[in-house]
Design a protein that fits this description.
Layout lengths: L5 H4 L1 H32 L4 H26 L3 H26 L2 E2 L6 H20 L1 E2 L1 H25 L13 H36 L3 H26 L3 H26 L2 E2 L2 H25 L1 E2 L1 H21 L1
Helix pairs in contact: 2-3, 2-7, 2-8, 3-4, 3-7, 3-8, 3-9, 4-8, 4-9, 4-10, 4-11, 5-9, 5-10, 6-9, 7-8, 8-9
Length: about 325
């Protein structure tokens, strides 16, 4: 693995690794999302579906890479902090900031099922806490759930398409397709190496500052791996695609729970306990219920609700750093 050994024992080098990892993760995620979104657009996929699938998977890829690498290194606390910290950042920081920048109105979209699916995925984490771990069996079940979720989205999209031949969009040539496939692959490589540097650096910094891996995962790593969602959501909202912004967050949180935790647990079971991770899990659960209530009621998140979400996130970060 890159930058291991003595480089990881030097706190100054560790901070450089974190910064470099965040930068490479951001660039890699941007390349992956742009390439994949272009391909999806060329295939005539609606913005909501792009947000729920292509963009959500692309922006969740950093969490996946970081979690698998951390689990393989035995840092399962970093995995829990990363996933639940990222979901908290997605709901409170990103949706809150996006709503403050521009109120979110996704009333034209039809994504009630996806919101209910997110609630079900969040409730599923209680199964792990009751059992004391995300076991391999639970990991397989969670991974199967995300496959069913994706199949359902694809089938719904196919049913909603108008019948008859579809014209090829202008500018979507074979050369452009190859270029964007290459961009997507390069983005994947960037995610791998950026995630490697970020995990190695974060572990060293956590030990040097006396912080536990779950805390560093819920703060530095979670915010860093949520930057792609932040960029994608704000850009989508400002460009008049609020359904993509909401779909990105809903899809990302579904993937973080079912895909990231599911695949990671399938590779290496993740022990959990209420005393260590209870509040860290409970906060995104409460935020999920609050956001789901807003969306299921009006499909809007206005500035006051965005401010409430931001205040919740400030409190959460203070709790993680000072009280956890």
């Amino acid at each position: 693995m890159a930058f291991r050994g003595r480089a990881c024992d030097d706190p100054a080098m560790a901070w450089l690794m974190i910064l470099a990892g965040l930068g490479v993760l951001g660039i890699g995620a941007e390349a992956l999302v742009r390439g994949a979104a272009w391909i999806a657009e060329a295939l005539g996929v609606r913005p909501l579906i792009v947000g729920l699938t292509v963009v959500a998977i692309g922006t969740s890829a950093p969490e996946m890479v970081v979690s698998v690498i951390a689990a393989n290194q035995g840092e399962t606390g970093l995995v829990i902090g990363n996933v639940f910290g990222s979901n908290t950042a997605n709901l409170a920081l990103i949706l809150g900031l996006t709503a403050v920048v521009r109120p979110i109105d996704a009333s034209d979209s039809k994504m009630r099922f996806e919101i209910l699916w997110l609630l079900a995925a969040s409730l599923l984490t209680f199964v792990a806490f009751l059992g004391g771990e995300f076991s391999r069996q639970l990991g397989v079940a969670m991974t199967a759930m995300i496959v069913v979720f994706l199949i359902w989205l694809v089938l719904r999209e196919r049913r909603g398409r108008p019948k008859g031949p579809r014209e090829t969009p202008r500018g979507k040539t074979a050369i452009s397709g190859i270029a964007h496939l290459a961009m997507t692959a390069a983005g994947g490589l960037g995610l791998y190496y950026g995630g490697q540097w970020l995990v190695d650096g974060a572990i060293t910094v956590a030990k040097d500052l006396g912080m536990s891996p779950p805390v560093i995962g819920a703060t530095i790593v979670a915010i860093g791996t949520s930057l792609p969602e932040l960029a994608a959501s704000i850009v989508a909202a400002r460009r008049g695609h609020p359904e993509m912004a909401v779909g990105n967050i809903v899809g990302s949180n579904v993937f973080n729970i079912l895909l990231v935790l599911g695949v990671t647990a399938t590779i290496s079971p993740i022990p959990v306990g209420w005393a260590e991770h209870g509040i860290r899990m409970l906060v995104p659960m409460v935020l999920t219920v609050y956001v789901a209530f807003l969306l299921l009621r009006t499909m809007r998140i206005m500035k006051p609700a965005g401010m409430i979400l931001l205040i919740c996130y400030v409190w959460y970060i203070i709790w993680e750093i000072l009280l956890a």
